[in-house]
Request: fold
Amino acid sequence: MKTFSVTKSSVVFAMALGMATTAFAQDFCSNSSHSGQSVKISSNQVGKIGDIGYELWDENGHGGSATFYSDGSMDCSITGAKDYLCRAGLSLGSNKTYKELGGDMIAEFKLVKSPAQNVGYSYIGVYGWMEGVSGTPSQLVEYYVIDNTLANDMPGSWIGNERKGTITVDGGTYTVYRNTRTGPAIKSSGNVTFYQYFSVRTSPRDCGTINISEHMRQWEKMGMTMGKLYEAKVLGEAGNVNGEVRNGRMDFPHAKVYVKNGSDPASSSSVKSSSSTVTPKSSSSKGSGVGPVVSTEFCKDAQHTGDKKTENGNKVGSINGIGYELWYDRATSGSATFYSDGSMSCSFQNAGDYLCRSGLSFNSDKTYKELDGDMLAEYKLVKQNVNGADYSYVGVYGWMEGVPGTQSKLVEYYVVDNWLSQYRPGDWVGNKKYGTFTIDGAEYDVYRNTRTGPAIKSSGNVEFYQYFSVRKQARDCGVINISAHMKKWEELGMTMGKLYEAKVLGEAGSNGGGVSGTADFPHAKVYVAKDEPVSSSSEAKVESSSSQTIGLIAAPKMELKSGNFQVFDMQGRFLGTVKVDAGATVNEVLKANFKNAGIYMVKQGNFMQRVAVK
Reply:
Protein backbone atom coordinates (compact mmCIF):
# COMPACT_ATOMS: atom_id res chain seq x y z
CA MET A 1 0.00 0.00 0.00
CA LYS A 2 1.19 3.51 -0.80
CA THR A 3 0.13 6.33 1.53
CA PHE A 4 -0.03 10.04 0.69
CA SER A 5 -0.81 12.76 3.23
CA VAL A 6 -2.16 16.28 2.84
CA THR A 7 -1.36 18.40 5.88
CA LYS A 8 -4.24 20.86 5.54
CA SER A 9 -6.96 18.24 5.76
CA SER A 10 -5.04 15.30 7.26
CA VAL A 11 -6.07 13.15 4.36
CA VAL A 12 -4.90 9.59 3.98
CA PHE A 13 -5.13 8.14 0.50
CA ALA A 14 -4.77 4.39 0.11
CA MET A 15 -4.26 3.21 -3.47
CA ALA A 16 -5.26 -0.33 -4.34
CA LEU A 17 -2.33 -2.53 -5.35
CA GLY A 18 -1.89 -2.91 -9.10
CA MET A 19 -4.27 -0.04 -9.91
CA ALA A 20 -3.38 2.15 -12.87
CA THR A 21 -2.63 5.58 -11.47
CA THR A 22 -3.45 7.26 -14.73
CA ALA A 23 -7.13 6.29 -14.43
CA PHE A 24 -9.22 9.35 -13.64
CA ALA A 25 -12.47 11.04 -14.59
CA GLN A 26 -12.78 11.93 -18.28
CA ASP A 27 -16.01 13.90 -18.32
CA PHE A 28 -14.51 16.24 -20.95
CA CYS A 29 -15.20 13.56 -23.57
CA SER A 30 -18.94 14.03 -23.18
CA ASN A 31 -19.20 17.68 -22.23
CA SER A 32 -16.56 20.24 -23.22
CA SER A 33 -16.41 23.65 -24.86
CA HIS A 34 -13.88 26.43 -25.40
CA SER A 35 -13.61 28.87 -22.50
CA GLY A 36 -11.52 31.80 -21.32
CA GLN A 37 -9.71 34.44 -23.33
CA SER A 38 -8.94 33.77 -26.99
CA VAL A 39 -6.61 34.94 -29.73
CA LYS A 40 -7.13 34.27 -33.46
CA ILE A 41 -4.01 33.85 -35.60
CA SER A 42 -3.96 33.83 -39.40
CA SER A 43 -0.20 33.79 -40.08
CA ASN A 44 2.78 31.84 -38.78
CA GLN A 45 3.27 32.69 -35.12
CA VAL A 46 4.60 31.33 -31.84
CA GLY A 47 2.94 32.84 -28.80
CA LYS A 48 1.42 32.43 -25.39
CA ILE A 49 -2.03 33.01 -23.90
CA GLY A 50 -2.16 32.76 -20.14
CA ASP A 51 0.17 29.89 -19.28
CA ILE A 52 -0.48 28.11 -22.58
CA GLY A 53 2.18 28.08 -25.29
CA TYR A 54 0.92 27.84 -28.85
CA GLU A 55 2.06 27.81 -32.46
CA LEU A 56 0.41 28.13 -35.85
CA TRP A 57 2.58 27.25 -38.83
CA ASP A 58 1.99 26.40 -42.46
CA GLU A 59 4.47 26.09 -45.27
CA ASN A 60 2.71 28.70 -47.42
CA GLY A 61 2.42 31.20 -44.60
CA HIS A 62 -1.21 31.99 -45.46
CA GLY A 63 -2.90 28.61 -45.70
CA GLY A 64 -5.04 28.63 -42.59
CA SER A 65 -5.90 30.09 -39.21
CA ALA A 66 -6.29 29.02 -35.59
CA THR A 67 -7.99 30.31 -32.47
CA PHE A 68 -6.22 29.55 -29.19
CA TYR A 69 -7.92 29.77 -25.79
CA SER A 70 -6.53 30.37 -22.32
CA ASP A 71 -7.95 27.02 -21.14
CA GLY A 72 -5.61 25.24 -23.60
CA SER A 73 -8.25 24.41 -26.20
CA MET A 74 -7.93 25.45 -29.84
CA ASP A 75 -9.80 25.51 -33.15
CA CYS A 76 -7.66 24.91 -36.25
CA SER A 77 -8.82 25.62 -39.83
CA ILE A 78 -7.02 24.84 -43.09
CA THR A 79 -7.84 26.79 -46.26
CA GLY A 80 -4.97 25.65 -48.48
CA ALA A 81 -1.59 24.53 -47.16
CA LYS A 82 1.24 22.22 -48.23
CA ASP A 83 1.87 21.51 -44.56
CA TYR A 84 -0.22 22.90 -41.70
CA LEU A 85 0.03 22.51 -37.97
CA CYS A 86 -1.38 24.09 -34.85
CA ARG A 87 -0.50 23.11 -31.33
CA ALA A 88 -1.06 24.23 -27.74
CA GLY A 89 0.29 23.07 -24.40
CA LEU A 90 3.45 23.22 -22.30
CA SER A 91 6.63 25.13 -23.18
CA LEU A 92 9.20 23.52 -20.88
CA GLY A 93 12.52 25.33 -21.39
CA SER A 94 14.77 22.32 -22.13
CA ASN A 95 16.02 22.03 -18.54
CA LYS A 96 14.47 18.72 -17.43
CA THR A 97 14.02 15.20 -18.76
CA TYR A 98 10.64 13.52 -18.37
CA LYS A 99 12.01 11.68 -15.31
CA GLU A 100 12.85 14.97 -13.58
CA LEU A 101 9.38 16.52 -13.79
CA GLY A 102 8.12 15.19 -10.47
CA GLY A 103 5.23 13.28 -12.01
CA ASP A 104 3.81 11.84 -15.19
CA MET A 105 3.22 14.25 -18.08
CA ILE A 106 -0.37 13.90 -19.27
CA ALA A 107 -2.24 15.20 -22.32
CA GLU A 108 -6.03 15.32 -22.56
CA PHE A 109 -7.85 16.03 -25.81
CA LYS A 110 -11.21 15.99 -27.49
CA LEU A 111 -11.30 16.27 -31.29
CA VAL A 112 -14.13 17.30 -33.60
CA LYS A 113 -12.89 17.08 -37.16
CA SER A 114 -14.30 18.14 -40.51
CA PRO A 115 -12.90 16.29 -43.53
CA ALA A 116 -10.24 17.97 -45.66
CA GLN A 117 -9.46 17.41 -49.33
CA ASN A 118 -6.18 16.12 -50.75
CA VAL A 119 -4.70 14.99 -47.43
CA GLY A 120 -1.46 13.08 -47.96
CA TYR A 121 -0.56 12.67 -44.29
CA SER A 122 -1.93 13.87 -40.97
CA TYR A 123 -0.96 13.57 -37.31
CA ILE A 124 -3.31 14.37 -34.42
CA GLY A 125 -2.25 13.79 -30.83
CA VAL A 126 0.86 14.91 -28.92
CA TYR A 127 3.91 16.67 -30.33
CA GLY A 128 7.16 18.05 -28.97
CA TRP A 129 10.93 18.42 -29.14
CA MET A 130 13.80 17.28 -26.93
CA GLU A 131 17.30 18.79 -26.81
CA GLY A 132 20.62 17.34 -25.67
CA VAL A 133 19.74 13.84 -26.87
CA SER A 134 22.92 11.78 -26.91
CA GLY A 135 23.65 9.59 -29.93
CA THR A 136 21.50 11.63 -32.32
CA PRO A 137 22.83 13.62 -35.32
CA SER A 138 22.14 17.11 -33.90
CA GLN A 139 21.18 16.08 -30.35
CA LEU A 140 17.59 16.93 -31.30
CA VAL A 141 14.50 14.71 -31.34
CA GLU A 142 11.06 15.61 -32.66
CA TYR A 143 8.43 13.29 -31.15
CA TYR A 144 4.81 12.37 -31.85
CA VAL A 145 2.10 10.30 -30.17
CA ILE A 146 -0.52 9.95 -32.90
CA ASP A 147 -4.07 9.12 -31.76
CA ASN A 148 -6.01 10.23 -34.84
CA THR A 149 -5.69 11.63 -38.38
CA LEU A 150 -7.44 13.74 -41.02
CA ALA A 151 -6.26 11.27 -43.66
CA ASN A 152 -8.24 8.21 -44.69
CA ASP A 153 -5.87 5.90 -42.83
CA MET A 154 -3.55 6.13 -39.84
CA PRO A 155 0.15 6.62 -40.70
CA GLY A 156 1.85 3.37 -41.73
CA SER A 157 5.38 2.02 -41.95
CA TRP A 158 6.34 4.82 -44.37
CA ILE A 159 6.55 7.13 -41.37
CA GLY A 160 9.87 5.76 -40.11
CA ASN A 161 13.19 4.30 -41.26
CA GLU A 162 13.03 1.77 -38.44
CA ARG A 163 10.05 -0.03 -36.89
CA LYS A 164 10.79 -0.67 -33.21
CA GLY A 165 7.75 -2.78 -32.28
CA THR A 166 4.41 -2.36 -30.50
CA ILE A 167 3.53 -1.12 -27.02
CA THR A 168 0.35 -0.89 -24.95
CA VAL A 169 -0.27 2.46 -23.25
CA ASP A 170 -3.53 3.86 -21.81
CA GLY A 171 -5.36 0.74 -22.95
CA GLY A 172 -4.43 1.21 -26.63
CA THR A 173 -1.90 -0.51 -28.89
CA TYR A 174 0.71 1.66 -30.60
CA THR A 175 3.33 0.88 -33.25
CA VAL A 176 6.65 2.62 -32.55
CA TYR A 177 8.96 4.00 -35.27
CA ARG A 178 12.17 5.99 -35.44
CA ASN A 179 12.95 8.15 -38.45
CA THR A 180 15.96 10.20 -39.55
CA ARG A 181 15.00 13.51 -41.13
CA THR A 182 16.77 16.57 -42.51
CA GLY A 183 14.76 19.77 -42.37
CA PRO A 184 13.83 22.80 -40.22
CA ALA A 185 14.20 22.33 -36.48
CA ILE A 186 13.96 24.32 -33.27
CA LYS A 187 16.78 26.79 -32.59
CA SER A 188 18.26 26.41 -36.08
CA SER A 189 18.30 28.89 -38.96
CA GLY A 190 18.64 26.25 -41.66
CA ASN A 191 18.05 22.57 -42.23
CA VAL A 192 19.61 20.07 -39.82
CA THR A 193 19.47 16.29 -39.42
CA PHE A 194 17.58 14.92 -36.41
CA TYR A 195 15.63 11.90 -35.21
CA GLN A 196 11.85 11.62 -35.08
CA TYR A 197 10.11 9.26 -32.63
CA PHE A 198 6.56 8.08 -33.37
CA SER A 199 3.93 6.13 -31.43
CA VAL A 200 1.01 5.46 -33.81
CA ARG A 201 -2.25 4.17 -32.32
CA THR A 202 -3.71 1.21 -34.21
CA SER A 203 -7.32 2.30 -33.54
CA PRO A 204 -7.92 6.06 -33.81
CA ARG A 205 -9.94 7.82 -31.12
CA ASP A 206 -11.53 11.27 -30.94
CA CYS A 207 -11.10 11.79 -27.22
CA GLY A 208 -8.93 10.52 -24.40
CA THR A 209 -5.94 10.85 -22.11
CA ILE A 210 -2.37 10.25 -23.29
CA ASN A 211 0.32 9.44 -20.74
CA ILE A 212 3.29 11.02 -22.52
CA SER A 213 5.74 9.89 -19.84
CA GLU A 214 4.70 6.27 -20.31
CA HIS A 215 5.41 6.49 -24.05
CA MET A 216 8.86 7.88 -23.25
CA ARG A 217 9.51 5.07 -20.79
CA GLN A 218 8.63 2.53 -23.46
CA TRP A 219 10.74 4.30 -26.10
CA GLU A 220 13.69 4.25 -23.73
CA LYS A 221 13.28 0.49 -23.23
CA MET A 222 13.55 0.15 -27.03
CA GLY A 223 16.90 1.96 -27.05
CA MET A 224 15.55 5.36 -28.13
CA THR A 225 17.47 7.89 -26.03
CA MET A 226 15.75 10.77 -24.25
CA GLY A 227 16.80 14.37 -23.67
CA LYS A 228 15.67 17.63 -22.07
CA LEU A 229 12.07 18.57 -22.87
CA TYR A 230 11.59 21.68 -24.98
CA GLU A 231 7.81 21.36 -25.32
CA ALA A 232 4.82 19.01 -25.09
CA LYS A 233 1.67 20.08 -26.89
CA VAL A 234 -1.60 18.79 -28.30
CA LEU A 235 -1.19 18.82 -32.09
CA GLY A 236 -3.27 18.96 -35.24
CA GLU A 237 -1.21 18.59 -38.43
CA ALA A 238 -2.00 17.79 -42.07
CA GLY A 239 -0.07 18.07 -45.33
CA ASN A 240 0.62 16.76 -48.82
CA VAL A 241 4.03 16.64 -50.50
CA ASN A 242 2.34 16.73 -53.93
CA GLY A 243 -0.13 19.56 -53.47
CA GLU A 244 -2.18 21.45 -50.92
CA VAL A 245 -4.56 20.28 -48.22
CA ARG A 246 -7.83 22.19 -48.51
CA ASN A 247 -10.83 23.05 -46.36
CA GLY A 248 -10.19 20.92 -43.27
CA ARG A 249 -10.85 21.67 -39.64
CA MET A 250 -9.55 20.21 -36.39
CA ASP A 251 -11.50 21.62 -33.46
CA PHE A 252 -10.25 20.77 -29.97
CA PRO A 253 -12.94 21.96 -27.49
CA HIS A 254 -10.75 20.36 -24.83
CA ALA A 255 -6.95 20.26 -24.90
CA LYS A 256 -4.69 20.21 -21.88
CA VAL A 257 -1.12 19.16 -21.09
CA TYR A 258 0.09 19.04 -17.49
CA VAL A 259 2.36 17.25 -15.05
CA LYS A 260 0.45 15.05 -12.66
CA ASN A 261 2.48 15.87 -9.56
CA GLY A 262 3.06 13.04 -7.14
CA SER A 263 1.90 10.39 -9.60
CA ASP A 264 3.36 6.94 -9.31
CA PRO A 265 4.65 5.95 -12.76
CA ALA A 266 2.84 2.82 -13.86
CA SER A 267 4.41 0.42 -16.29
CA SER A 268 2.44 -0.46 -19.38
CA SER A 269 2.06 -3.99 -18.12
CA SER A 270 0.22 -2.75 -15.05
CA VAL A 271 -2.16 -0.48 -16.95
CA LYS A 272 -5.41 -2.21 -17.85
CA SER A 273 -8.21 -0.20 -19.40
CA SER A 274 -11.55 -1.78 -20.15
CA SER A 275 -13.74 -0.40 -22.90
CA SER A 276 -16.71 -2.49 -21.87
CA THR A 277 -19.76 -0.71 -20.52
CA VAL A 278 -20.37 -0.97 -16.79
CA THR A 279 -23.59 -2.87 -16.10
CA PRO A 280 -26.17 -0.15 -15.42
CA LYS A 281 -27.91 -0.45 -12.09
CA SER A 282 -30.54 1.79 -10.60
CA SER A 283 -32.42 2.20 -7.37
CA SER A 284 -36.01 1.10 -7.11
CA SER A 285 -37.13 4.70 -7.56
CA LYS A 286 -37.19 5.18 -11.32
CA GLY A 287 -35.88 8.46 -12.66
CA SER A 288 -34.89 9.82 -9.27
CA GLY A 289 -31.83 10.15 -7.07
CA VAL A 290 -28.49 9.62 -8.74
CA GLY A 291 -29.97 7.24 -11.34
CA PRO A 292 -28.03 4.53 -13.13
CA VAL A 293 -24.28 5.15 -13.34
CA VAL A 294 -23.15 4.20 -16.84
CA SER A 295 -19.73 4.10 -18.46
CA THR A 296 -19.10 6.73 -21.15
CA GLU A 297 -16.06 4.92 -22.54
CA PHE A 298 -17.81 5.03 -25.94
CA CYS A 299 -17.16 8.79 -26.06
CA LYS A 300 -13.48 8.02 -26.69
CA ASP A 301 -13.37 5.01 -28.98
CA ALA A 302 -16.75 4.58 -30.67
CA GLN A 303 -17.02 3.12 -34.16
CA HIS A 304 -19.71 1.40 -36.22
CA THR A 305 -19.78 -2.39 -35.87
CA GLY A 306 -21.91 -5.31 -37.02
CA ASP A 307 -24.18 -5.81 -39.99
CA LYS A 308 -25.51 -2.76 -41.81
CA LYS A 309 -28.32 -1.60 -44.07
CA THR A 310 -28.14 1.49 -46.28
CA GLU A 311 -31.43 3.20 -47.13
CA ASN A 312 -31.74 5.78 -49.90
CA GLY A 313 -35.43 6.61 -49.60
CA ASN A 314 -38.02 7.05 -46.89
CA LYS A 315 -38.12 3.79 -44.95
CA VAL A 316 -39.15 2.31 -41.61
CA GLY A 317 -37.29 -0.90 -40.82
CA SER A 318 -35.25 -2.87 -38.34
CA ILE A 319 -31.87 -4.58 -38.09
CA ASN A 320 -30.99 -7.07 -35.36
CA GLY A 321 -33.99 -5.95 -33.31
CA ILE A 322 -33.08 -2.26 -33.65
CA GLY A 323 -35.90 -0.16 -35.08
CA TYR A 324 -34.97 2.64 -37.48
CA GLU A 325 -36.44 5.25 -39.79
CA LEU A 326 -35.15 7.47 -42.58
CA TRP A 327 -37.44 10.28 -43.76
CA TYR A 328 -36.87 13.44 -45.79
CA ASP A 329 -38.66 15.77 -48.18
CA ARG A 330 -37.59 18.11 -51.01
CA ALA A 331 -34.08 16.62 -51.06
CA THR A 332 -31.65 16.30 -53.96
CA SER A 333 -30.51 13.16 -52.20
CA GLY A 334 -30.66 11.58 -48.78
CA SER A 335 -29.44 8.35 -47.27
CA ALA A 336 -28.68 6.64 -43.99
CA THR A 337 -26.72 3.57 -43.00
CA PHE A 338 -28.04 1.71 -39.96
CA TYR A 339 -25.91 -0.81 -38.06
CA SER A 340 -26.88 -3.80 -35.95
CA ASP A 341 -25.15 -2.25 -32.91
CA GLY A 342 -27.66 0.65 -33.05
CA SER A 343 -25.28 3.21 -34.56
CA MET A 344 -26.06 5.10 -37.76
CA SER A 345 -24.65 7.55 -40.28
CA CYS A 346 -27.05 10.10 -41.80
CA SER A 347 -26.37 12.15 -44.97
CA PHE A 348 -28.56 14.73 -46.69
CA GLN A 349 -28.34 17.14 -49.62
CA ASN A 350 -30.63 20.17 -50.08
CA ALA A 351 -33.39 18.71 -47.89
CA GLY A 352 -36.40 20.67 -46.68
CA ASP A 353 -36.59 18.42 -43.62
CA TYR A 354 -34.50 15.35 -42.90
CA LEU A 355 -34.46 12.91 -40.01
CA CYS A 356 -32.95 9.56 -39.19
CA ARG A 357 -33.42 7.67 -35.97
CA SER A 358 -32.52 4.34 -34.40
CA GLY A 359 -33.45 2.63 -31.15
CA LEU A 360 -36.35 0.92 -29.36
CA SER A 361 -39.75 0.20 -30.90
CA PHE A 362 -42.41 -0.59 -28.28
CA ASN A 363 -45.92 -2.03 -28.57
CA SER A 364 -47.62 0.95 -26.90
CA ASP A 365 -48.50 -1.30 -23.96
CA LYS A 366 -46.41 0.24 -21.16
CA THR A 367 -45.78 3.66 -19.68
CA TYR A 368 -42.25 4.61 -18.67
CA LYS A 369 -43.15 3.71 -15.06
CA GLU A 370 -44.12 0.19 -16.08
CA LEU A 371 -40.73 -0.62 -17.59
CA ASP A 372 -38.27 -2.74 -15.60
CA GLY A 373 -35.98 0.23 -14.96
CA ASP A 374 -34.85 3.59 -16.24
CA MET A 375 -34.86 4.06 -20.01
CA LEU A 376 -31.46 5.34 -21.16
CA ALA A 377 -30.03 6.58 -24.45
CA GLU A 378 -26.31 6.70 -25.25
CA TYR A 379 -24.97 8.57 -28.25
CA LYS A 380 -21.91 10.08 -29.84
CA LEU A 381 -22.31 12.69 -32.60
CA VAL A 382 -19.81 13.73 -35.27
CA LYS A 383 -21.06 16.63 -37.43
CA GLN A 384 -19.59 17.03 -40.91
CA ASN A 385 -20.01 19.89 -43.39
CA VAL A 386 -23.50 20.91 -42.27
CA ASN A 387 -24.90 24.06 -43.87
CA GLY A 388 -28.28 25.64 -44.48
CA ALA A 389 -29.92 24.35 -41.28
CA ASP A 390 -32.56 26.72 -39.88
CA TYR A 391 -33.63 24.28 -37.16
CA SER A 392 -32.26 21.01 -35.84
CA TYR A 393 -32.78 18.50 -33.03
CA VAL A 394 -30.19 15.91 -32.00
CA GLY A 395 -30.89 13.65 -29.04
CA VAL A 396 -33.87 11.45 -28.18
CA TYR A 397 -37.18 11.22 -30.04
CA GLY A 398 -40.36 9.19 -29.67
CA TRP A 399 -44.12 8.96 -29.53
CA MET A 400 -46.64 8.05 -26.82
CA GLU A 401 -50.20 6.82 -27.35
CA GLY A 402 -53.27 6.93 -25.11
CA VAL A 403 -52.27 10.24 -23.54
CA PRO A 404 -55.27 11.66 -21.63
CA GLY A 405 -56.12 15.33 -22.13
CA THR A 406 -54.94 15.48 -25.74
CA GLN A 407 -57.27 15.58 -28.74
CA SER A 408 -55.73 12.63 -30.57
CA LYS A 409 -54.28 11.05 -27.41
CA LEU A 410 -50.85 11.31 -29.07
CA VAL A 411 -47.63 13.00 -27.90
CA GLU A 412 -44.44 13.44 -29.91
CA TYR A 413 -41.49 14.02 -27.56
CA TYR A 414 -37.91 15.28 -27.85
CA VAL A 415 -34.90 15.49 -25.54
CA VAL A 416 -32.58 17.82 -27.47
CA ASP A 417 -28.92 17.55 -26.45
CA ASN A 418 -27.37 19.11 -29.57
CA TRP A 419 -28.28 20.68 -32.91
CA LEU A 420 -26.88 20.91 -36.44
CA SER A 421 -28.08 24.49 -36.88
CA GLN A 422 -26.00 27.50 -35.89
CA TYR A 423 -28.36 28.41 -33.07
CA ARG A 424 -29.89 26.40 -30.25
CA PRO A 425 -33.64 25.72 -30.47
CA GLY A 426 -35.32 28.58 -28.59
CA ASP A 427 -38.70 29.52 -27.22
CA TRP A 428 -40.20 29.14 -30.68
CA VAL A 429 -40.34 25.36 -30.23
CA GLY A 430 -43.35 25.53 -27.90
CA ASN A 431 -46.62 27.34 -27.22
CA LYS A 432 -45.91 27.05 -23.51
CA LYS A 433 -42.62 27.26 -21.64
CA TYR A 434 -42.58 25.60 -18.22
CA GLY A 435 -39.16 26.94 -17.23
CA THR A 436 -35.57 25.79 -16.76
CA PHE A 437 -34.92 22.67 -14.71
CA THR A 438 -31.99 20.47 -13.76
CA ILE A 439 -32.67 17.01 -15.16
CA ASP A 440 -30.16 14.18 -14.97
CA GLY A 441 -27.41 16.59 -13.90
CA ALA A 442 -27.83 19.30 -16.59
CA GLU A 443 -30.06 22.32 -17.22
CA TYR A 444 -32.89 21.97 -19.75
CA ASP A 445 -35.67 24.30 -20.90
CA VAL A 446 -39.00 22.46 -20.96
CA TYR A 447 -41.76 23.27 -23.48
CA ARG A 448 -45.11 21.98 -24.67
CA ASN A 449 -46.37 22.67 -28.17
CA THR A 450 -49.67 22.01 -29.97
CA ARG A 451 -49.18 20.90 -33.56
CA THR A 452 -51.35 19.76 -36.44
CA GLY A 453 -49.60 17.50 -38.93
CA PRO A 454 -48.69 13.90 -39.82
CA ALA A 455 -48.56 11.50 -36.89
CA ILE A 456 -48.11 7.80 -36.17
CA LYS A 457 -51.03 5.55 -37.09
CA SER A 458 -52.85 8.32 -38.96
CA SER A 459 -53.46 8.67 -42.68
CA GLY A 460 -53.87 12.45 -42.59
CA ASN A 461 -53.07 15.41 -40.39
CA VAL A 462 -54.14 15.31 -36.75
CA GLU A 463 -53.65 17.57 -33.75
CA PHE A 464 -51.24 16.38 -31.04
CA TYR A 465 -48.93 17.66 -28.33
CA GLN A 466 -45.15 17.90 -28.56
CA TYR A 467 -42.98 17.80 -25.41
CA PHE A 468 -39.46 19.26 -25.50
CA SER A 469 -36.49 19.25 -23.13
CA VAL A 470 -33.77 21.43 -24.70
CA ARG A 471 -30.31 21.30 -23.13
CA LYS A 472 -28.74 24.66 -22.26
CA GLN A 473 -25.24 23.54 -23.28
CA ALA A 474 -24.83 21.29 -26.31
CA ARG A 475 -22.74 18.13 -25.98
CA ASP A 476 -21.49 15.74 -28.65
CA CYS A 477 -21.53 12.62 -26.51
CA GLY A 478 -23.27 11.38 -23.40
CA VAL A 479 -26.03 9.40 -21.70
CA ILE A 480 -29.62 10.68 -21.54
CA ASN A 481 -31.92 9.35 -18.81
CA ILE A 482 -35.21 9.47 -20.73
CA SER A 483 -37.19 8.30 -17.70
CA ALA A 484 -35.86 11.23 -15.65
CA HIS A 485 -37.18 13.66 -18.27
CA MET A 486 -40.59 11.98 -18.29
CA LYS A 487 -40.72 12.11 -14.51
CA LYS A 488 -40.03 15.87 -14.61
CA TRP A 489 -42.60 16.42 -17.37
CA GLU A 490 -45.18 14.57 -15.30
CA GLU A 491 -44.37 16.69 -12.24
CA LEU A 492 -45.08 19.76 -14.40
CA GLY A 493 -48.54 18.47 -15.37
CA MET A 494 -47.59 17.09 -18.80
CA THR A 495 -49.49 13.81 -18.98
CA MET A 496 -47.80 10.58 -20.05
CA GLY A 497 -49.03 7.67 -22.14
CA LYS A 498 -47.98 4.28 -23.48
CA LEU A 499 -44.59 4.24 -25.21
CA TYR A 500 -44.58 3.68 -28.97
CA GLU A 501 -40.85 4.28 -29.51
CA ALA A 502 -37.68 5.81 -28.04
CA LYS A 503 -34.86 6.45 -30.48
CA VAL A 504 -31.65 8.43 -30.93
CA LEU A 505 -32.46 11.16 -33.44
CA GLY A 506 -30.70 13.38 -35.94
CA GLU A 507 -33.03 15.92 -37.55
CA ALA A 508 -32.42 19.13 -39.49
CA GLY A 509 -34.50 21.34 -41.72
CA SER A 510 -34.49 24.48 -43.80
CA ASN A 511 -37.10 27.14 -44.43
CA GLY A 512 -35.39 28.07 -47.69
CA GLY A 513 -32.89 26.47 -50.03
CA GLY A 514 -32.35 23.22 -48.18
CA VAL A 515 -30.01 21.71 -45.59
CA SER A 516 -26.97 19.57 -46.44
CA GLY A 517 -24.39 17.66 -44.44
CA THR A 518 -23.72 14.52 -42.44
CA ALA A 519 -24.64 13.58 -38.89
CA ASP A 520 -22.62 10.50 -37.97
CA PHE A 521 -23.46 8.54 -34.82
CA PRO A 522 -20.62 6.00 -34.33
CA HIS A 523 -22.37 5.07 -31.09
CA ALA A 524 -26.15 5.06 -30.52
CA LYS A 525 -28.02 2.83 -28.11
CA VAL A 526 -31.38 2.93 -26.29
CA TYR A 527 -32.14 0.40 -23.56
CA VAL A 528 -33.83 -0.19 -20.23
CA ALA A 529 -31.43 -0.39 -17.28
CA LYS A 530 -33.08 -3.12 -15.26
CA ASP A 531 -33.44 -2.56 -11.55
CA GLU A 532 -31.26 -4.45 -9.11
CA PRO A 533 -31.81 -3.85 -5.39
CA VAL A 534 -29.01 -2.38 -3.33
CA SER A 535 -27.38 -5.18 -1.35
CA SER A 536 -27.46 -5.05 2.42
CA SER A 537 -23.68 -4.94 2.51
CA SER A 538 -23.76 -1.84 0.27
CA GLU A 539 -20.42 -2.79 -1.23
CA ALA A 540 -19.72 -2.11 -4.89
CA LYS A 541 -19.42 -5.37 -6.79
CA VAL A 542 -15.99 -5.92 -8.34
CA GLU A 543 -16.09 -7.62 -11.73
CA SER A 544 -12.51 -8.86 -11.45
CA SER A 545 -9.59 -8.09 -9.21
CA SER A 546 -7.34 -7.62 -12.22
CA SER A 547 -9.42 -4.99 -14.01
CA GLN A 548 -10.35 -2.98 -10.91
CA THR A 549 -13.67 -2.20 -12.62
CA ILE A 550 -16.96 -2.09 -10.72
CA GLY A 551 -20.68 -2.04 -11.40
CA LEU A 552 -21.68 1.08 -9.48
CA ILE A 553 -24.89 0.73 -7.51
CA ALA A 554 -27.07 3.82 -7.47
CA ALA A 555 -28.00 4.76 -3.92
CA PRO A 556 -29.62 7.64 -2.03
CA LYS A 557 -27.81 10.96 -1.96
CA MET A 558 -25.85 11.84 1.14
CA GLU A 559 -24.73 14.91 2.98
CA LEU A 560 -20.96 14.95 2.51
CA LYS A 561 -19.36 15.13 5.95
CA SER A 562 -16.22 13.72 7.55
CA GLY A 563 -15.23 10.08 7.40
CA ASN A 564 -13.86 7.53 4.95
CA PHE A 565 -15.03 7.54 1.32
CA GLN A 566 -14.46 5.10 -1.52
CA VAL A 567 -13.72 6.94 -4.79
CA PHE A 568 -14.54 5.78 -8.34
CA ASP A 569 -14.21 7.40 -11.74
CA MET A 570 -17.16 7.64 -14.13
CA GLN A 571 -16.06 4.45 -15.89
CA GLY A 572 -16.62 2.60 -12.61
CA ARG A 573 -12.93 2.05 -11.81
CA PHE A 574 -11.99 2.08 -8.13
CA LEU A 575 -9.46 4.87 -7.52
CA GLY A 576 -8.85 4.49 -3.81
CA THR A 577 -10.10 5.47 -0.36
CA VAL A 578 -9.85 8.94 1.15
CA LYS A 579 -10.31 10.12 4.71
CA VAL A 580 -11.91 13.50 5.28
CA ASP A 581 -11.31 15.04 8.69
CA ALA A 582 -13.63 17.54 10.33
CA GLY A 583 -13.25 20.99 8.76
CA ALA A 584 -12.16 19.67 5.36
CA THR A 585 -14.37 19.10 2.32
CA VAL A 586 -14.58 16.14 -0.01
CA ASN A 587 -13.83 18.44 -2.97
CA GLU A 588 -10.58 19.61 -1.34
CA VAL A 589 -9.55 16.04 -0.60
CA LEU A 590 -10.26 14.78 -4.12
CA LYS A 591 -8.39 17.68 -5.69
CA ALA A 592 -5.41 17.20 -3.36
CA ASN A 593 -5.12 13.48 -4.11
CA PHE A 594 -6.11 13.09 -7.74
CA LYS A 595 -4.99 16.47 -9.18
CA ASN A 596 -7.57 16.27 -11.98
CA ALA A 597 -10.72 18.27 -12.52
CA GLY A 598 -13.72 16.14 -13.43
CA ILE A 599 -16.63 14.12 -12.07
CA TYR A 600 -16.03 11.48 -9.40
CA MET A 601 -18.33 9.08 -7.56
CA VAL A 602 -17.83 8.90 -3.80
CA LYS A 603 -19.38 6.16 -1.68
CA GLN A 604 -19.86 5.88 2.07
CA GLY A 605 -21.90 3.02 3.50
CA ASN A 606 -25.23 2.82 1.67
CA PHE A 607 -24.78 6.22 0.06
CA MET A 608 -23.21 7.29 -3.21
CA GLN A 609 -22.96 10.71 -4.84
CA ARG A 610 -21.37 12.49 -7.79
CA VAL A 611 -18.83 15.17 -6.88
CA ALA A 612 -17.58 17.74 -9.40
CA VAL A 613 -13.99 18.88 -8.86
CA LYS A 614 -12.91 22.06 -10.66
